[in-house]
Amino acid sequence: MAAWLTAPPPSxxxxxxxxxxxxxxxxxxxYGRMSTTEYxxxxxxxxxxxxxxLHLIAGHGVIVASYFDAGCSRSLPWSQxxxxxxxxxxAADPCRPFDAIVVGEFERAFSAGQFEHLLPYLGEHGVQLxxxxxxxxxxxxxxxxxxxxxxxxxQSQREVLRARFRTSxxxxxxxxxxxxxxxxxxxxxxxxxxAGPHPNAANARWGRRLHQLDPDPETAPTVRWMxxxxxxxxxxxxxxxxxxxxxxxxxxxxDRARNPHRAGTSWTVxxxxxxxxxxxxxxxxxxNRQGIDHHEVNPxxxxxxxAGRKPSHHWNDRDQWVISTTVVHPPLVSEQDFLRVQQxxxxxxxxxxxxxxxxxxxxxxxxxxxxxxxxxxVHGRAGYRCRHGYTSGRDVQPDRAKILYLREEQxxxxxxxxxxxxTGVAPQDLDGGELGRQLRWRGYTLLCTPVSxxxxxxxxxxxxxxxxxxxxxxxxxxTHSRPEMSPPPSQLPLxxxxxxxxxxxKAFNPHQNHPKRE
Length: 518
What we know:
This protein is an alpha/beta fold. It is built from 14 helices and 17 strands. It has a five-stranded mixed β-sheet with strand order 2-1-3-4-5. A three-stranded mixed β-sheet has the order 12-16-17, covered by helices on one side. The longest helix is centred in the N-terminal third of the chain and has 36 residues, at 143-178.
């Protein structure tokens, strides 16, 4: 049937030798691509691209091989696309089964300057490239063809940026004006319920529905209890200890299907703090709390990303959040109480309004548990401690190792002496934060125990020796928040559970019974 449909109509019979139909002399390899597998139909996308290629080469040849990448961005270079890489390898084979490559659309195959890099490679191996935009094969020596390819590459890269902008702009309006749930898992204490047909008439006819947040009968009381206890004066650590003592499942423990990568064994201070800081519990929709950094040197060109670097998420500043203008789902805490909790949560700077700065952050390794020591401001001076995995969200275990505490001034003296001996740098040149910069630049760390501090040079590095100056100064700083105290038991118990008050113990004094170093 297909042959009959594509066959030309019969011509009038003439005397003499009948005409011989033209036979295609070229063998083509078809290449196509689609960006996603979740929102695009493989059969449809592959079909229309192949039809476009067949229309282009009609009367010139036939397709003898097909290469199709599904789920690959156009920004990826051909060498990083599985099927495109296989096509390039086949093109370099002298016994390849095809003579030319044909694509259904330029933007399906190329972006930015990819075409300019690929064409010389194909020409070296004697493989033509056919494009619908050129109406046939591309001539690398034709200035018109060269200009057209540059324009198409820029247009393809521009389309990536336009798609990003249009998508984020639309989501911003939908979150602010409509309060629409824009995907993602519901926060702890909520579940997703049906919110009616899609506002787009076509989507509604296809059966698409909207969703909104609704209180989860099992977890919403716990969230309300957290806010109530915080307003009653409880510390975040005290809330975490009580939840753990009563066996309340943490968010990752309650929803194991979406958290297989987390242990889900207990509540942490950070989990409690994240819940208390989330404005979605006031009934308003919030979007853009997290952003994405593509790490692209040329925006929209994924091939300009440093090797091995992937897009990463980061927390946006509060002024970049988009919050709905009205309440769109049942709140678990009033706006007034939520704002009061934020006043309790943390201080931006210490009481004296002076940020506390640490010179050796991330450079001290515990010799007992191999964890990094954390900065701790004690008695008006910088220090470092390691609690060996213990957190204030759990009760103290009697057999845990003693907390390691070191004063920064002592570490600077000993580390400076060892670094000067190893590198020949004068000790007086390691003041004012220079020691920390030298250690980071050289890739050195300090292995610390209660009785010793040892310079760990690790493996040989490119900057192990020499007089090359280290990078510009970049002071490490850490702001110390006011320590939280656990209040007496509240009159607002966790629903259905018994409140377990924190077990008091003698405060740890880092300057008492501290082992002396020689």
